[in-house]
Design brief:
Blueprint lengths: L1 E5 L9 H6 L4 E4 L12 H13 L3 E6 L5 H5 L4 H18 L3 E5 L10 E5 L5 E5 L1 H11 L11 H10 L5 H14 L15 H10 L6 H22 L2 E5 L17 H10 L5 E6 H5 L6 H8 L3 E6 L2 E3 L5 E3 L5 H13 L4 E4 L20 H23 L2
Parallel strand pairs: 1-2, 1-12, 2-3, 3-4, 4-7, 7-8, 8-9, 9-12
Antiparallel strand pairs: 5-6, 6-11, 10-11
The chain binds D-mannose (DNO).
């Protein structure tokens, strides 16, 4: 696979010079300064592309060209926004940037409750605590009938948490779930929003009456509209699975499992309609066997996210090591059958001073460098065995 790295642009504290030293070959980035829904002009695209190439690297993947909320819920202005999307795609195509990652998650991109969950060895990881998430939903967001979406065990954990949850603890939870994890991925809420919870409630309202079936229709509508541009420029669209892969906060989620992946691929049967195989997101659902899914969907995968989660008995999940045997299997599959596909690591631990650097959540330097080293080792071993058996 092509070793890529998510880089957040010229203001990223991790520079392109640093990335060349650690074996990165391709860059994954976006025009983060352009607001969602606006056109990425050819000039802006070329500016970024030239900057990357001037540093001896290439722009391998766009992550993300964000799909506006209105396209997802089917708002009145969706056709105008889809037209803008098509123009941005064409400009990327003309510039030769042809792998585009996006997601179709309503309102909230990825979700975690704890961004620095301590490990025994002194490092820390991202963590999803199901009870804390339920607490946010029931006690902070106060969503109508929210309790009905959680099992008895989780509700009991919520009750147990209540005496400890003071104002500061609640603020931290809000910050982790809807602010710190969202702004830097061009999500709906940013650090400058004064009342994120109220804004979030307004966003949820946009999806009243939208079930999974309707959301699927809206995704199909979007994909069918953009496929002619993808055909013209040979652009591969690759949807990121829902993270976590289950409905949350009363919102439908439609890229969560084998059946969902099959459904969106079948709905628009065009080779440019593909998948970002995020082993981490898929493995956070107990229903998914990532090893099998990798084998099954390798040929429709245009981009790989190498990381993996461990689901705990109470429904919590945390990131596991990049040497987890399941991830070794996934990497082996892609390195064998899709050797050129771009791959990046993410959600690696905070370690050796990363925690003081203010990196975007999940995007540490030392932790990701170690993870890239691990994945590179797996790839090298696969290739050695491949060459010896020729
Ligand atoms: C989180 C990321 C996601 C991903 C988007 C793609 O770390 O994996 O934010 O970039 O969902 O659109």
């Amino acid at each position: 696979m092509e070793k890529t790295w998510r880089w957040f642009g010229p203001n990223d504290k991790i520079t392109l010079e640093m990335l060349r030293q650690i074996g990165v070959e391709g860059i994954v980035t976006a025009l983060h300064h352009i607001p969602n829904g606006e056109i990425w002009s050819y000039d802006e695209v070329m500016k970024m592309k030239n900057f990357i190439e001037d540093h001896g690297l290439r722009w391998s993947v766009v992550e993300s060209l964000p799909v506006s909320e209105s396209i997802k819920y089917g708002g009145e202005d969706r056709d105008r926004l889809i037209e803008n999307y098509k123009i941005s795609l064409a400009n990327l195509g003309k510039a030769g940037v042809k792998t585009i990652c996006y997601n179709f998650m309503p309102v909230l991109d990825w979700a975690r409750t704890d961004l620095e969950n301590p490990n025994d060895d002194g490092t820390s990881n991202l963590y999803f605590n199901k009870a804390e998430f339920a607490y946010f939903d029931i006690c902070i967001l106060k969503r109508a009938n929210a309790s009905a979406d959680y099992d008895e065990k989780t509700l009991a954990r919520v009750e147990k948490m209540k005496p400890e949850m003071d104002e500061e603890a609640e603020r931290r939870l809000v910050d982790n779930i809807i602010v710190k994890t969202q702004g830097f991925v061009n999500g709906n809420i940013s650090e400058s929003d004064l009342n994120p919870v109220e804004k979030f409630r307004e966003l949820l309202k946009l999806y009243e009456g939208i079930d999974a079936g309707q959301l699927r229709e809206n995704m199909k509508y979007f994909l069918e509209a953009i496929m002619p541009v993808c055909d013209e420029y040979d652009i591969n669209m690759c949807v990121h699975p829902d993270d976590p892969p289950m409905p949350i906060l009363g919102l439908p989620r439609i890229v969560t499992c084998d059946a969902d992946i099959k459904a969106f691929l079948d709905a628009v049967p065009n080779k440019h309609n593909g998948l970002t195989f995020c082993a981490g997101s898929l493995s956070a659902g107990a229903q998914n066997d990532v090893t099998e899914l990798a084998r099954k969907y390798a040929d429709r995968t245009h981009f790989v996210h190498a990381r993996i989660c461990r689901v705990l008995p109470d429904g919590d999940f945390k990131e596991s090591t990049h040497l987890d045997p399941r991830l070794i299997d996934v990497v082996t599959t892609f390195e064998t059958v899709r050797p050129g596909v771009p791959m990046r690591v993410d959600h690696a631990p905070l370690m050796l001073g990363d925690e003081k650097m203010g990196y975007n959540a999940g995007y540490s330097f030392h932790g990701r460098m170690l993870a890239l080293g691990m994945v590179s080792g797996i790839m090298a071993t696969v290739n050695k065995i491949k060459n010896e058996s020729k």
